[in-house]
């Protein structure tokens, strides 16, 4: 299964373990809340450890306001979601993913030159502002060999620009993957929580017609009070939950109690300790 689909799909609980350690695996929820972002080489090595490798598919970056005792280098914090690499199409790849951060030109350079120039694509894209300058945080995956596929990315797009691109093959930064016949998905923006609930239940809202199709969220982003952008796919009877605002310990407890993993984690506005999250039940 392509990683772009697998990141949102139900998987065995072992694919979301917290640690494989020398004494055996520890149960987990496939995500971590705010963690130190520096030195990046250290925590990246943890995820590519001798006990097994995790593939990051979602990253949320919180810039530092300035040096502090907890963050003396002012590198900020990250929250992530992951799958164990041996559960993915990248199980045989020695080097499957990389992180990159910078301007749009920086990202374009990384895409061209990562993985020894063999090919990369963006799996996850997040934006933040550093001294009022737009910056991107991206997760790149190898785009060569059996895991290669068509994709596109861009930024600064209006909703209409993005709709036009989708038909042809505020502003958005986006990553697109090739759509296959028979695959259904929906996206929307400027939605309230009630609007999202209506669409999930197949009711009409804005340009959405009533279709009586049960859907589930796979991506959720808050831009202002009661102003959300979302992506949905057919529910297909799967167990799942979404939470507009929870701290990470709460999300961990819910996921563990309900045999779920976190498939999307986003900072709730400018909150220091709350996230918006989507969970899916394990197989």
Structural class: alpha+beta
End-to-end CA span: 15 Å
Uncertain segments: none
Q: Assign a percent range to the helix content.
A: 10-25%
- Averaged pLDDT, please? 85
Plain-language structure description:
This protein is α+β, with helices and mostly antiparallel strands and 283 residues long. It contains 6 helices and 15 strands. Strands 1-4-3-2 form a 4-stranded antiparallel sheet, covered by helices on one side. A hairpin with a 2-residue loop joins strand 11 and strand 12. The longest helix has 10 residues. The chain is globular, with a radius of gyration of 18 Å. 28% of the residues are buried.
Short description, anyone?
The protein contains six helices and 15 strands.
Annotation keywords:
18% helix; three-stranded antiparallel beta sheet; 283 residues; alpha+beta; single chain; four-stranded antiparallel beta sheet; globular
Question: How are the SSEs placed, and which strands pair?
Answer:
Blueprint: H1 3-6, E1 31-36, H2 40-47, E2 48-49, E3 52-62, E4 77-84, E5 97-102, H3 104-113, E6 120-130, E7 133-142, E8 151-157, H4 159-168, E9 172-177, E10 186-191, H5 193-200, E11 215-224, E12 227-234, E13 240-247, H6 248-257, E14 260-267, E15 274-281
Antiparallel strand pairs: 1-4, 2-3, 3-4, 5-7, 6-7, 8-9, 10-12, 11-12, 13-15, 14-15
